[in-house]
Every structure is written in structure tokens, then in C-alpha cells.
Amino acid sequence: MSFETISVVGLGYIGLPTAAMFASRKKQVIGVDVNQLAVDTINRGAIHIVEPDLDMIVHAAVTEGYLKAVTTPEPADAFLIAVPTPFKSCTEGEIPEPDLRYIEAASKAIALVLKKGDLVILESTSPVGATEQMAEWLAETRPDLSFPQQSGENADVNVAHCPERVLPGHVVRELVENDRVIGGMSKRCSERSVELYKLFVQGDCVITNSRTAEMAKLTENSCRDVQIAFANELSIICDKLDIDVWELISLANRHPRINILQPGPGVGGHCIAVDPWFIVSKTPEEALLIHTARKVNDAKPEWVINKVKLAVADFLQANPTKTVKDLTIACYGLAFKPNIDDLRESPAVDILKKLYEIHSGNVIAIEPNIALLPSNLNKYELNDLETASIKADIHVLLVDHKEFRLKKPEKGVIIDMKGIWG
Ligand code: SAJ
After folding, report:
1. What's the pLDDT tens digit per position in 184-193?
2. Measuring CA to CA, which of 7, 22, 36, 295 is 20 to 30 A from 363?
3. Its pTM surpasses 0.85
4. Which atom of ligand 1 lies at the shortest distance from residue 269's CA?
């Protein structure tokens, strides 16, 4: 059976570009999202996120009639679920547990419109076993259809896990070029998933089972987290030993088998700071290194705040006529990484909030990728680069956005967490 109509549930940073890719291959695509504002924006041919080149593709797909967005699922031949998988809230020191409530809601909603021959793919990053759990939710809602856990190769509905692996900021290119891990609950589920992705994926589609596919995704992000933790730990060691960590890393990386990543103010985003916990929470006794890396990276923002506190003390000592009230701290960059507008799990935002509390509001932010801060952050003052570099006494560089590379503040104390201002 070919895929004429494809539905993507969750029109965020992964779901919307994926939907747009299928639409660009002239398939009828129905995007589903609970966010009415996102749905309305997409139906106008615009986008509600920042991702290079995506606006053009969505605009073309909507105006040519291949992509529409709705809030309630409609029948389709294939469904891709790309909803968030956060973790449940927990107290400090506790291991966070994954929260599958959005996958549960999405799978129960699409179950109502499933028919024999459909394919359901979970794309959301998930703990091992989540795809089997999703298939259970589908089966509970639709006892009239058979699923792979009951009927294997002969199931009415095929189910697979195909984790997304694209890098925010390069999504359009990576969606097409990256290899895909395809974890079907049966051989047939995998083969049909490959057929679907091959509509636009030029990379290899490599088949495995759903549990290995889930673990592959978690492994990739945990590997990166561990490597960043190494860089962050090095930066703290170097600071104590009065060594320039950026120079050190560039020297060490001249070794043919060494490739150390870059330190920063901590690890942000909805993936690398989250996914390793999905392994730690399942296997806490075994995942010692992965757990420690999480703790090292999570502790980095506090270290940055302490650096700022020391700089404030030094500044006041050097300027005895001034008090804390006369001093302005500028935080450069709020996004979780360079050249995007994504504030999710951003260590820079945590640092801004803490500094604002400590310095009773004499803290300003510069974020060239955002015109207006979201409502939960609207008490913070957003300044342009020019104003901040004149106004602030302490400049804290948190994100290496391209705009900051072009302009280093001429006066004041510099605390550079990304090594671009020298
Ligand atoms: N970071 C550093 N130092 C570095 C590299 C990154 O501190 O040398 C920080 C960034 O500033 C950011 C965080 O790590 O705060 C994560 O950034 P990232 O660029 O490493 O990764 P993400 O979260 O944008 O995307 C990752 C990617 N995974 C891997 O590279 C293994 C991407 O391919 C995944 O698709 C994505 O997670 C995801 O959705 O899971």
C-alpha cells in the first residue's frame, strides 16, 4: 500500500519540518497540533519557530495545497508522532523519570481514526519500551484492529520507532541527508517505515528492532553529554590552574585521535540535557558515567554565577565610590545554543534568572534571535548589543551567537563562557 496521505502529530521543531518534507514530495500531509496558534500560523503559510529555510518550504507546501494543519486527527495512511517527552517533576537529587503523557494522548487520539493497513511511527525520543507501550495504548483504544504485539507480521496496523536525529539550525538539510534508524515491531513494520522515509530521506535507512532504535537515540545524546561534561570539567580545572582552556583544547585536538568538544555555561535544549536521564532512570546501578556527566553539566551554571559574583566583588573593590545598585550586568545570549531562538532548558536563561535575583534587577539580556521575550520571561529587560556594550559594567557571554563574534564590548569586565572575546 502506498502512502498518499501522511499525518504528523506534533508540529514543533521536528514535526513541522518533517511534515513539510513529505508535502514537498507532493504527498497530502495533515499536521496535527493542540496549539491553535501554531495551527493557524501554519495554515497561513507561515511558521511559529525559527529554523533556516523552513519558512519557504512550509509556505510553498501550504499554498500548493499539500500541507494543512488541524487540531484533531483525521484519517491517513501513515501517522508520525513527534510530541515532546519531558520528564516528570522531581525533587533535587532524585533521578527524573520520563513522562510519556503526550505520547499517550497522541496515540489515543490517532487510534480513533486508524484503519487496516495504516502505519504508526513514534519519532519522539523515548525510553526503551515506549514504542511497545504506545502499541498497547493503540490496541486498548481499538480492539477491532490487530497490532504487531498480537499478530506480528500479519498485524492490521504496523508500528515502529524511528528517532529523529537532526540538529536544530540544520534541520532541513539533515532531515534529507542523515541516516535513519528504523526500529519496527516486526520486519514488515520496518520495511513499510523505510518505504515511507525513502520519500525524502537520501541517507541510509538502517533496520533494527524498536528497543534498539530507542536505545540508539538515547546513546547518541548521552555520548555527546559525556563528552561535553569532559570539556566543562576541563574548563573548571583550567580556571583553577590559570590555563586558557580554549587554547588547551585546540592544542590537544591537534592529536590525530583526540577531538574534545567545547565548554560552555552548561548543556541546554530538550534533548541532550534530558535523554541521558531516560537511561539513568531505567538502569541507575549501571549508568554511572552517564549519571555523573549529567551532574557535571547541570552544575556548570552555578559555577558561572559564582564567577560573576567574584567579578562583582572585584569591580566594587576597584570602584569604591560605586555600590551594587550602580552596577549593570549584561547576559549575552539566552538561547540554548548559537544562532537559534530556542530557549528550552537553556542554562543561559537559568543564569539570567539567578543573577537577576541576586542583583535586584540590575541585569539586562541581549538575544539577537528574539524580538520579544515569552510571557514567563517578560520581566527581564531585552537590550540590543550596542546599548548593552555601553551600558553594562560586567559582560557575561553565555552563547556564541554570530552577532557577538563581531562586537566585543570595549569597556567593563568580560566573563566569556564560549571563548570568543579572547
Ligand atoms: N554544547 C556545548 N559544547 C559543545 C557542543 C554543544 O556546550 O561542544 C551544548 C550546546 O551549547 C547546547 C547543548 O550542548 O546547550 C546541546 O547542543 P548540541 O548542538 O550538542 O545538540 P542539540 O541538542 O541541538 O541536538 C542534539 C543532536 N544530537 C547529537 O549531536 C548526538 C541532534 O543530532 C539530535 O537530533 C538532537 O539532539 C535531538 O533532537 O535529540
Report:
1. 999 999 999 9
2. 295
3. yes
4. 23
